[in-house]
Structures are given as structure tokens and as C-alpha cells.
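Lecture notes, part 5. Sequence design as translation. It can be helpful to think of inverse folding as translation between two languages: the language of shapes and the language of residues. The source text, in C-alpha cells, appears below.
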């Protein structure tokens, strides 16, 4: 990675880069002892910032000039003072670390030292003016604030080592001791005494101990450079358990973790902020929508123990498996997907896009078979099977109120898909699954054919013929209305999924007031079942050769279109082997 010919930018123009590494400051706010010498940390008078007195003395002895290398406030303590070469009274205050004495002076606080816990919970009156440049920081100064003239934030992009794209990097002009990611709040893993990262959201923190600055990288890279002193730090992260080795998959993994486009707003935001520390609030706000959804993980195949095949779909097989020796999961294997089939990527993107509902099947991550290289999607195991089989096995025992509850959940899931401006395109009872946890819950699965509602580029037709909207057989494109064919054969007469959901919810809420209606309906249903006029066995006899697995219907549609063009209508007598 090349860093030469970059425009020079000094994030702390009033401070110098230290000639020796600054080892006396804590890197982890949970550590009690110095990482360098092992002595117990001391704490500053304000904000309880951790530092090592012994390593500070060692550092002071190594400095031979009066340059200011870090922004510190030193005050006289109230213990009896010993003799000094110069007279010091109780009002003594300095920013020159060379004047510090461990016997009679205390570190009040470090200005370029940020501890998220203490600096955000303690509201202490401090000086209103910046001691480096004299700028008014705040008319009423309570809490930890720094000068926007002396501490400058910048951002840029560096090349990712996971995929061939540039990823954002944020250059912050202070020392940050946080041990949790500011994006996902997971614990950070320490790589060195100056580097840590989050294996969940892929954010890397690299600090410079010569300048007390930090680079926050939103993705994985192998090197980074301090903006002030230009020192290059190598980053060694074992990507075995987080990278698939495939460009398309790794790019998607990053996509689920960060909203890269939002980082371009940082510069304009900080130009209008009087306190550079507000950048943290900005990042948390901008990333909130991204991380409210589950991040897709790369799961090594060795963590998966396949138990048995439970179903075969249009694009592969579904098996029951155990993940990490404890979690039952469903593994959907996409046949012949060595080169990453579009159906696989389509499904993982759609699942992530529609994750914010309890009625869409939940995912854990993706993996790849080590021999065939087929892509596999790891999802929550639906132990209750699909709705088609459930109705066949339990038809006689399913009361109207139960059917209404199922319909509420199904319509909620489809509404989520449509609200995301997607259409399912393969919506049928075989793709509606029962999850048995604490309560029975119906979820929508198999989003491999879903696509944006305004995308008509995909003309392939897959699915179960009984559930394909009639207008598709007449050459019409898929639409949201195609997902609700059960309401009316004419798409213009079909209500939206929102209207369906509202109606079903209204029925369910008023079920007690309309109890008489449900009672009569139950009596009618029971009578029809007893007289053998109603039941799944009758529909089986009607279509003994029916295929309920999604498959390509393009040849069938072409055949229908050819017949329509020659005779002007579709005959019911033709045998299409459905």
C-alpha cells in the first residue's frame, strides 16, 4: 500500500510529535495495571483518566526540550511540599510536562485523552478558553470539550484487503481508550498495545503513541499511516474466519456492517460543529439504521455438522445441521453455485434487507462447501416444517381463529417485503415455515427470486405453477400484485398487502365481538369435514401429478404463449405435466 505524495495535514498543529513513544497512557479503560511496566495505574484529578506515574517519570527524563507533545493540565496538590529549585504556590498551573513533580503536583487531566465512560458521565466545570490557542471553547463550559482549532478531524479512503474497493478511514486527533466498538457496541479484540478491532462490525482502531492520534478504519486493510508523523503501522488480522476468499461475498459482508456512503458526510458535519468530539454522536446516529439489522457472518464450514436432508427446493437442498455443537440450524445449499450464483446473492441480500421483522426467516451467515465450493446459507431451523405440509397433516384440527392468526403473521412478513420495495416472486405455502420456539411463529423464507419492485430486467420465471399469477402466463411482468394472486384473478382488483394486513388485523382484534360468526363458521367447517366434503385428501385426488417444488416455468410459459397466439385462448384440456 502506497502512502507517498499525500497532501500533508496536521491534526494537532499546536502540538509536536513526541521523539519517544508515549507509553504511560492506558490503552484499555478496563485495565488496572500499566501494560509497559506492570505498576498500578494512577488516575487524573478530573475525569479519572488512567496513566502510569513511573512510566511518565521515565518519559520526562528522556525529553530534553520544552516542546509541547501532549495537551495536559498540571496543578499543585494539597500535601506538604518538598523543596524545589523554583517556588511553587497552591495556585501553580502549567501545561509543561517538564515541570511535573510526582511529590507535589497532580495531573488535572489530559485534553487529548478520550475515555468514553468518564468524559461522558462526569460534568465538571473546566476552563472556557483553549490553553493552546486562546479560542473561546464555550461560554458555559461544563463537561469534556476540546478546541476545534487545535484538534482537526479528517477522513479518507484506503484499499480493503477483503475485496477490491476503497473503504473509509477516519483520522481523530486524540487518544481513545474505548474497549467497545462505537458502531455495534461489541467488545474490541486487542492485536497489539496500539491496535484493536471488532470481529463483528470489522472496525479497526490503530493508535500512534508518538502523536496520541487514532485512525478508525471501517473495514479490513493491512496498513495505515499516522496523519501527523507519517509512521506506517502494519495491521495483522487473521481473516481466515471472516473472509470467504470470494470478492462478491466479502463485499456483501462489509455492506451489512457499514453504510460506507454516509462517511462522506463527516467533513460537512464537522465544519458545523464546535466540539470535535461530537463526531462520535454523528457516527452512532448515521450507523444506527445499518446496525439495527443483523450482520451477516462468514461461517467456516468446519463449524457446521450436517445431520440430514429435509427438503429439496428449486435451486438446491435444505438440511438440518448443528452449528458450533449446540445450535440447530437449517443449511440451504445452492447447487452448482461454485461461481456464486445470482440466486444465492439475491437471497442473502433480500434477507438482510428485510431482516427487521419477526415474520421473515432469520439468518446467521454463509459458508461454502470445501470440495464442491457450493454456497450455503445458514438460517434458523424451522422445526415445524412448511405450511403446505402443516395444512395437510392438521387440516381437521385447525380452527378458524387459528387460521386468522396464521394469516396475520404471513401478511406481516409479506408487508415487510413490499415496504422494502421488493416482491417475493415465489410466494406459496411451501415457502412459509413454522418456527417452534416459545410460541408458534410463521415466517416467510426462500427469497432467492425476490427482486426490487422497479426491476424488470429479470424475465426468468420460476415457481410452483398453481401459485403463479395468471397475468404472467399472458406475458405480463412480475409485480407486487403477483404476490397476492389469491385475492382476485384480475391484478387491478387485488388490494395491496397493507390493505390485506389491516383487514386481517381488524378481524383478529374484533374476534370476541364477532364470536358468533366464528362459532357458525366452525360448525359449518366441522359439518363439511364429517360429511367428507372438505379436506386435503380431495385436492390430492384432483391433481395427482402436481409438483409443489419451485422450478423453471419459462418453457411452459412459452408453450402457453405459442398456443394463445395460434388459437386465441388457453385450453384447460392441455396436459402440461404440472
Amino acid at each position: 500500500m502506497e502512502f507517498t505524495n499525500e497532501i500533508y495535514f496536521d491534526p494537532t498543529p499546536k502540538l509536536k510529535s513526541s521523539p519517544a513513544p508515549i507509553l504511560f497512557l492506558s490503552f484499555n479503560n478496563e485495565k488496572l495495571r500499566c501494560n509497559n511496566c506492570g505498576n498500578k495505574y494512577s488516575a487524573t484529578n478530573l475525569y479519572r483518566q488512567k496513566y502510569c506515574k513511573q512510566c511518565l517519570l521515565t518519559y520526562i527524563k528522556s525529553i530534553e526540550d520544552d516542546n509541547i507533545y501532549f495537551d495536559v493540565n498540571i496543578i499543585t496538590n494539597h500535601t506538604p511540599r518538598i523543596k524545589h529549585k523554583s517556588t511553587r504556590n497552591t495556585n501553580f498551573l502549567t501545561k509543561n510536562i517538564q515541570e511535573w513533580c510526582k511529590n507535589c503536583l497532580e495531573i488535572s487531566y489530559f485534553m487529548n485523552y478520550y475515555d468514553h465512560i468518564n468524559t461522558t458521565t462526569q460534568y465538571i466545570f473546566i476552563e472556557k478558553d483553549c490553553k493552546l490557542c486562546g479560542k473561546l471553547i464555550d461560554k458555559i463550559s461544563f463537561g469534556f470539550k476540546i478546541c476545534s482549532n487545535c484538534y482537526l478531524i479528517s477522513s479518507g479512503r484506503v484499499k480493503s484487503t477483503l475485496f477490491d474497493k476503497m473503504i473509509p478511514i477516519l483520522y481523530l486527533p486524540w487518544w481513545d481508550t474505548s474497549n467497545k466498538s462505537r458502531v455495534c457496541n461489541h467488545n474490541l479484540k486487542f492485536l497489539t498495545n496500539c491496535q484493536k478491532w471488532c470481529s463483528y462490525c470489522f472496525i479497526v482502531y490503530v493508535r500512534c503513541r508518538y502523536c496520541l492520534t487514532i485512525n478508525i478504519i471501517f473495514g479490513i486493510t493491512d496498513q495505515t499511516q499516522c496523519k501527523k508523523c507519517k509512521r506506517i503501522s502494519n495491521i495483522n488480522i487473521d481473516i481466515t474466519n471472516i473472509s470467504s476468499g470470494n470478492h462478491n461475498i466479502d463485499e456483501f459482508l462489509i455492506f451489512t456492517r457499514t453504510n460506507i456512503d454516509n462517511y462522506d458526510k463527516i467533513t460537512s458535519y464537522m465544519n458545523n460543529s464546535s466540539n470535535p468530539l461530537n463526531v462520535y454522536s454523528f457516527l452512532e446516529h448515521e450507523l444506527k439504521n445499518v446496525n439495527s439489522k443483523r450482520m451477516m457472518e462468514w461461517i467456516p464450514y468446519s463449524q457446521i455438522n450436517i445431520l440430514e436432508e429435509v427438503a429439496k427446493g428449486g435451486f438446491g437442498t435444505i438440511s438440518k445441521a448443528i452449528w458450533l455443537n449446540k445450535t440447530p440450524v437449517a443449511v440451504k445449499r445452492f447447487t452448482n453455485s461454485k461461481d456464486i450464483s445470482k440466486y444465492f446473492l439475491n437471497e442473502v441480500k433480500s434477507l438482510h434487507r428485510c431482516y427487521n421483522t419477526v415474520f421473515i426467516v432469520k439468518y446467521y451467515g454463509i459458508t461454502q462447501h470445501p470440495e464442491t465450493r457450493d454456497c450455503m446459507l445458514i438460517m434458523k431451523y424451522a422445526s415445524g416444517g412448511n405450511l403446505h405440509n402443516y395444512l395437510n397433516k392438521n387440516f381437521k384440527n385447525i380452527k378458524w381463529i387459528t387460521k386468522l392468526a396464521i394469516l396475520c403473521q404471513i401478511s406481516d412478513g409479506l408487508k415487510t417485503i413490499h415496504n422494502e420495495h421488493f416482491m417475493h416472486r415465489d410466494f406459496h405455502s411451501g415457502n412459509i415455515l413454522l418456527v417452534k420456539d416459545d410460541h408458534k411463529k410463521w415466517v416467510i423464507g426462500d427469497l432467492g427470486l425476490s427482486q426490487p419492485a422497479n426491476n424488470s430486467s429479470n424475465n426468468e420465471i420460476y415457481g410452483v405453477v398453481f401459485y403463479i399469477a395468471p397475468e404472467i402466463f399472458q406475458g405480463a411482468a412480475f409485480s407486487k400484485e403477483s404476490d397476492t394472486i389469491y385475492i382476485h384473478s384480475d391484478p387491478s382488483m387485488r388490494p395491496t398487502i397493507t390493505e390485506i394486513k389491516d383487514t386481517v388485523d381488524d378481524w383478529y382484534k374484533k374476534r370476541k365481538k364477532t364470536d358468533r360468526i366464528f362459532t357458525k363458521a366452525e360448525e359449518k367447517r366441522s359439518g363439511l369435514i364429517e360429511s367428507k366434503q372438505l379436506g386435503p385428501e380431495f385436492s390430492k385426488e384432483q391433481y395427482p401429478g402436481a409438483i409443489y417444488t419451485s422450478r423453471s416455468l419459462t418453457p411452459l410459459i412459452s408453450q402457453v404463449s405459442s398456443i394463445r397466439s395460434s388459437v386465441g385462448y388457453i385450453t384447460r384440456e392441455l396436459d402440461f405435466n404440472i
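The translated text above is only one of many valid answers, since several sequences can fold into similar shapes. Residues 1-5, 567-578 have pLDDT under 50 and may be disordered.
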